[in-house]
Specification:
heterotrimer; A mainly alpha; B mainly alpha; C mainly alpha; A: mainly alpha; Four Helix Bundle (Hemerythrin (Met), subunit A); 72% helix; 0% strand; C: Helix Hairpins; 3 helices; transmembrane helix (chain B); NU5C-like (chain B)
Chain lengths: 173, 620, 102
C-alpha cells in the first residue's frame, strides 16, 4: 500500500469522519446496554452524513440525518422501550458462532479489500453539477417519477403492515 | 380396391376385442365373451375374402409399410405382406380361432374368469395374425414374443393349480431359449444384410440373386439360430419338453395354441425365411435330421403315455417334426400342406378330447372306455380326426403325409424310412387312444353324456375339414403346392410311397385294434418281455430328469450363490448408501436449528468459499 | 491511491462490522440496527461512485435515496414484527426464535 497521500482538505475530512464512523460502529457492538448501542450507531450515521457532504451529496446527507438519525434510530429506541431487556450482558456466550462469525467477516473483509485494491479505477473525471439538490429534484419528478411513486407505495404498504402487525390482537372473549 | 389392402384390419378386430374385454373385466358377465367370438368371426370373414381374392390368381402380392423409426440414415419399416402363404395362414388361424372361441363358450361356461379367458384368446389371435402378416423379421419377432406371452398366460390360466403354474413357467422359459437364438439371428442379419434390411423381400433378394453377399459360414449360423427359435416354438427336440407340460392349460387352448397355430409358427418362420436355409446345406440337413428324429422320438413316447392330452401333445411334437422334415428336404409346399391339414385334424382331436374330459372329468385313458356309446358325435368326429392323423386315405392327413414322404424319398431316403416308421407308430398310438377311450366298457365311475351343441358344432366343422382339406393337393394334382410356393411341383407320383404309407398306417391301426379293442394280442406283450423299454418311454426317455440334473440344478445353485451375494454384498452396499444418506440427513437436520443467525453464518461462509474459489482461479 | 478506494474500503469495513453484528448479536433490535449499518455502507458506496465513478452522475445518489426509503420500510416492519413476537414470547433474543425449524 502506498502512502504518498496528499493532505488535502478532503482527505483530512474523510479521515476524521471515517474514524468517527468506525469507532461508532465498533462501540455499538461493544456496549452492553441496548440504548447505548443505538445511540452509538446514531453517531456512526451522523458521521456518514458528514461523509456524504464531503462527497458533494448534500441532499443525501440531509436525508440521512433526517431518516436514519431522526426516524430509524428513534424507532428503534421506541422498540427498545416497548420490550423488556433484563439480564443483558450476562447471557451465556456462543463461542462457536462468535468465532466462526468473526472468521467469516474478516475473510469477507479481506476479499473485499483485495478486490478494491485489485480493481483499476479511472482517474477523477467530470465534476457533478453544483446544485445537486435541484438536479435530484428534477430527476425525481421527470426521469425517475415511476420508481419514486412505486417507492412511496412501498412505504405506505410497509407502514400499514407495521401497524397491522404491531396492533394488539383483540381478545376473543 | 382389393381386400389385401385391408389385411391390417384382420388382427385389429381381436385387438379391439381384447381391449374391450380386459377393460370390462370380471364384472362384465358371461355374455360379454361373445365380443371375442364376434371379433374372430369378422376376422375370419375378412381372411376368407383375402384368400378368395388370392385364389382367383389375378392380383399381385401386396405389401404396405410405413416408417416406424428413423435412426440416422437407417429407417426401420413396419408393415404387412399379403401373399398366398400368409393368406393361407390367415384363414387357418382365424378359422381355428373362431371355432375354438365357439367351443370355449361351452367348455369354459362355469369358469368365473371367462371374460379374461376370451380376452387372452383374442390377444393371442391378434398376435398370431400379426406374426403371420409381418413383412419383416423385427415385427415378426415382436409378435413372436407376444404369442409366447399369451401362451404363458393361457397355460397358467388356472394358476391355482401348482402344476399349471409350473407348466406356464416351463413353457415360457424353454421357449425363451429358442427366442434368444432367433434374436441373435436377427441381430446378425441386421449386421450383415446390405442396408441393414430386415424385410422378407430384401432377404429373399439377397439370398437368391445376390448370393455371396453374406459369407457361407455366417449364413449357416444365421439359419441355425433361426431354426433354434423355431425349435423352441414348435417343440422340436431338444426343446420339446415344454409342450406336453403345457397341456395343463384349458383344453381349447391346447387346441388353438399348442396344436394348430402357435406351435406351427416355428414351421411358418422357417418357411418364411426358407431362402436362408436353402443357401446352406448344413442348415437344411440339420432341419431335416432334427425334424425326423423328433417325429419318431415323440411318437415312441406317445405310445406309452396314459394322459389323453399328453398323447395328443406328443403327437403334435411328432407331426411338427414331420413338417420340419419336409422343410429340411426342401419341400416348403409339403410342410405348409401338412401344417394346413394338421391344424384342422389336431384341433379337432384336442377339442374332441376336451369334450370327453368335460364329460368324464378325468384325463387318464385307463379310467375311460365305452365313452363312445353315450357321445356319438364326439366319438365319430374324434375317429375321423384319428384316421386323418394316422394317414388313412382319403382323409386329409394321408395326402399331406404322403407329400412329405415323397419329398423325403427323393432327397433323403433314410429319412423316408424314419417317416414311414413314425407313420406306423402314429397309427398305433392313435388306435390305442381311440379304442381305449371310446370302445369297450366303462372303467371309471363317471357317466359320460354328450356335450352341448356349441361344443359339438366346431367338432363337426373340423371333422368335415379333416376329411376334405387333403384334396387341395393330391399326387395327381399339385395345385396347392404351386399356389403356396409359386413353383411348379416336382412330378412325384410314386406308387411305392403310397403303398408303404397306407400299409404301415393300416398295419398300425389293425395292431391297435387287435391289442386294445379285440384283445387277441395281450396288452403287456411288450412290457412283460422288455419292462425297461416301457418304463423309459413312460418317463419320456428321462429327458426332463436329465435337464433337471445337468441344467436346472447347476443353474439353481448358481442362482442361490448369486442370491447370497446379492443379500450380503449388493444389499449391503445399498444399505450402506441408505444409512450414510440418513446419517448425512441427521447431521444436516442439526444445522436446521431454526436459528436465524446460524443460517446467516452458513450463507456467509458459503459466500466466502465461492468468492475464494472464484478469486483462487486466478492463481492456478 | 485515489479517494474512491478509500471510500470503498471504509464501506467494506462498516459492512463487515454490520454483518458481524447481525450474526453474533443476540438482541433483535441490535440485529435490526446492524442491518441498517450494512445498508448504510452500501449507500456510501453508491454515493462515492456517483462522484468518482467512471461516469459521474446523480443516479448513484438517487439510488441511495431509494435504498434509504426501503431501509425505512424494512425497519418499520422489522420493529413491528419484533413487538408482535415479544408479545407472544416475552423475549427479544434472536436465539429463542426458532419458529423456522417447524
Amino acid at each position: 500500500m502506498s502512502f504518498n497521500i496528499e493532505f488535502t482538505g478532503e482527505f483530512v475530512a474523510f479521515f476524521s469522519l471515517a474514524v468517527c464512523a468506525i469507532v461508532g460502529a465498533v462501540m455499538a457492538l461493544n456496549f452492553t446496554k441496548v440504548v447505548h448501542m443505538a445511540l452509538s450507531l446514531a453517531f456512526t450515521f451522523i458521521a456518514l452524513a458528514g461523509l456524504f457532504v464531503v462527497l458533494e451529496a448534500e441532499f443525501v446527507a440531509f436525508v440521512q440525518v433526517l431518516l436514519y438519525v431522526g426516524a430509524i434510530t428513534i424507532l428503534m429506541i421506541f422498540g427498545i422501550m416497548m420490550t423488556k431487556h433484563q439480564g443483558e450482558g450476562q447471557e451465556p456466550s456462543r463461542p462457536l458462532l462468535e468465532t466462526l462469525g468473526a472468521i467469516g467477516c474478516l475473510a469477507l473483509l479481506g476479499i473485499l479489500i483485495f478486490a478494491i485494491r485489485d480493481a483499476n479505477f479511472p482517474a477523477d473525471s467530470a465534476p457533478l453539477p453544483l446544485d445537486t439538490t435541484r438536479e435530484i429534484g428534477k430527476l425525481l419528478f421527470t426521469q425517475m417519477a415511476v420508481p419514486f411513486e412505486l417507492v412511496s407505495v412501498l412505504l405506505t404498504v410497509a407502514f400499514i403492515g407495521a401497524v397491522a402487525l404491531a396492533k394488539r390482537e383483540e381478545d376473543p372473549q | 380396391m382389393t381386400f389385401a389392402q385391408y389385411a391390417w384390419l384382420v388382427p385389429l378386430f381381436p385387438v379391439a376385442a381384447f381391449a374391450v374385454l380386459i377393460t370390462l373385466g370380471r364384472g362384465a358377465g358371461r355374455q360379454a365373451a361373445w365380443i371375442g367370438t364376434l371379433a374372430s368371426l369378422v376376422s375370419l370373414i375378412l381372411s376368407l375374402c383375402i384368400a378368395g381374392e388370392r385364389l382367383s390368381g389375378t392380383v399381385d402380392e401386396y405389401n404396405a409399410h410405413f416408417t416406424w423409426l428413423q435412426i440416422g440414415n437407417y429407417s426401420l419399416n413396419a408393415g404387412f405382406d399379403v401373399t398366398n402363404l400368409t393368406s393361407l395362414m390367415l384363414v387357418v388361424v382365424t378359422l381355428v380361432s373362431f371355432l375354438v372361441n365357439l367351443y370355449s363358450h361351452g367348455y369354459m361356461r362355469d369358469d368365473e374368469r371367462i371374460t379374461t379367458f376370451f380376452a387372452y384368446v383374442a390377444l393371442f389371435t391378434a398376435s398370431m395374425l400379426g406374426l403371420v402378416l409381418s413383412d419383416n423379421l423385427l415385427t415378426l419377432y415382436i409378435f413372436w414374443e407376444l404369442v409366447g406371452v399369451c401362451s404363458f398366460l393361457l397355460v397358467g390360466f388356472w394358476f391355482q393349480k401348482p402344476e399349471a403354474k409350473a407348466a406356464a413357467k416351463k413353457a415360457f422359459i424353454v421357449t425363451r431359449i429358442g427366442d434368444l437364438g432367433l434374436l441373435i439371428a436377427l441381430l446378425l442379419l441386421f449386421w450383415y444384410m446390405p442396408g441393414n434390411a430386415l424385410d422378407f423381400s430384401s432377404i429373399h433378394n439377397v439370398f437368391t440373386t445376390e448370393a455371396g453377399v453374406i459369407a457361407g459360414g455366417i449364413t449357416t449360423l444365421i439359419a441355425l439360430l433361426i431354426f433354434l427359435g423355431a425349435v423352441g416354438k414348435s417343440g422340436q427336440f431338444p426343446l420339446h419338453v415344454w409342450l406336453p407340460d403345457a397341456m395343463e392349460g384349458p383344453t381349447p387352448i391346447s387346441a388353438l395354441i399348442h396344436a394348430a397355430t402357435m406351435v406351427a409358427a416355428g414351421v411358418f418362420l422357417v418357411a418364411r425365411t426358407f431362402v436362408i436355409f436353402q443357401a446352406s446345406d448344413a442348415a437344411m440337413t440339420t432341419v431335416a435330421v432334427i425334424g425326423g428324429f423328433t417325429a419318431i422320438f415323440a411318437a415312441t413316447i406317445g405310445l406309452a403315455q396314459n394322459d389323453i392330452k399328453r398323447i395328443l401333445a406328443y403327437s403334435t411334437v411328432s407331426q411338427l417334426g414331420y413338417m420340419m422334415l419336409a422343410l429340411g428336404v426342401g419341400s416348403v409346399s409339403a410342410a405348409m400342406f401338412h401344417l394346413f391339414t394338421h391344424a384342422f385334424f389336431k384341433a379337432l382331436l384336442f377339442l374332441g378330447a376336451g369334450s370327453v374330459i368335460h364329460a368324464v372329468h378325468t384325463q387318464d385313458i385307463r379310467e375311460m372306455g365305452g365313452v363312445g356309446r353315450n357321445m356319438k358325435i364326439t366319438a365319430w368326429t374324434f375317429g375321423i380326426g384319428a384316421l386323418a392323423l394316422s394317414g388313412i386315405p382319403p382323409f386329409a392327413g394321408f395326402w399331406s403325409k404322403d407329400a412329405i414322404l415323397t419329398a423325403a424319398l427323393t432327397h433323403q431316403p433314410l429319412l423316408f424310412w424314419v417317416g414311414a416308421v413314425t407313420a406306423f407308430l402314429t397309427a398305433l398310438y392313435m388306435a390305442r387312444l381311440f379304442f381305449m377311450v371310446f370302445a369297450g366298457n366303462p372303467r371309471g365311475e363317471a357317466h359320460a353324456h354328450e356335450s352341448p351343441a356349441i361344443m359339438t358344432l366346431p367338432l363337426i366343422v373340423l371333422a368335415v375339414l379333416a376329411v376334405v382339406a387333403g384334396f387341395v393337393e393330391t399326387p395327381f394334382n399339385g395345385w396347392f403346392g404351386e399356389w403356396v410356393t409359386g413353383e411348379k411341383p416336382e412330378a412325384h407320383t410314386s406308387a411305392m410311397v403310397i403303398v408303404v404309407s397306407v400299409a404301415v398306417s393300416l398295419l398300425g391301426v389293425y395292431l391297435g385294434w387287435l391289442i386294445y379293442a379285440k384283445g387277441t394280442v395281450r396288452r403287456d406283450i411288450v412290457s412283460s418281455r422288455i419292462p425297461g423299454l416301457v418304463k423309459v418311454l413312460e418317463n419320456k426317455y428321462y429327458i426332463d430328469e436329465l435337464y433337471r440334473f445337468i441344467l436346472v440344478k447347476p443353474l439353481g445353485g448358481l442362482g442361490k450363490a448369486l442370491a447370497v451375494f446379492d443379500e450380503y454384498v449388493v444389499d449391503g452396499v445399498v444399505r450402506m448408501a441408505g444409512q450414510s444418506a440418513a446419517g448425512l440427513g441427521r447431521l444436516n437436520a442439526r444445522l436446521q436449528s431454526g436459528q436465524l443467525q446460524g443460517y446467516a453464518l452458513t450463507a456467509l461462509i458459503g459466500l466466502v468459499i465461492i468468492a475464494l474459489a472464484i478469486a483462487g482461479r486466478r492463481f492456478w | 491511491m485515489n479517494m474512491l478506494a478509500s471510500y470503498l474500503t471504509l464501506a467494506a469495513v462498516l459492512f463487515c462490522i454490520g454483518l458481524y453484528g447481525v450474526i453474533v448479536k443476540r438482541n433483535a433490535i441490535i440485529v435490526l440496527l446492524s442491518i441498517e449499518l450494512m445498508l448504510n455502507a452500501v449507500n456510501l458506496n453508491l454515493v462515492a461512485f456517483s462522484k468518482y465513478g467512471v461516469q459521474p452522475s446523480l443516479t448513484g445518489q438517487l439510488f441511495s435515496l431509494f435504498t434509504m426509503t426501503v431501509a425505512a420500510a424494512e425497519a418499520a416492519v422489522g420493529v413491528a414484527i419484533l413487538v408482535a413476537i415479544y408479545r407472544a414470547r416475552a423475549s427479544v433474543n434472536v436465539d429463542e426464535f426458532d419458529e423456522l425449524r417447524r
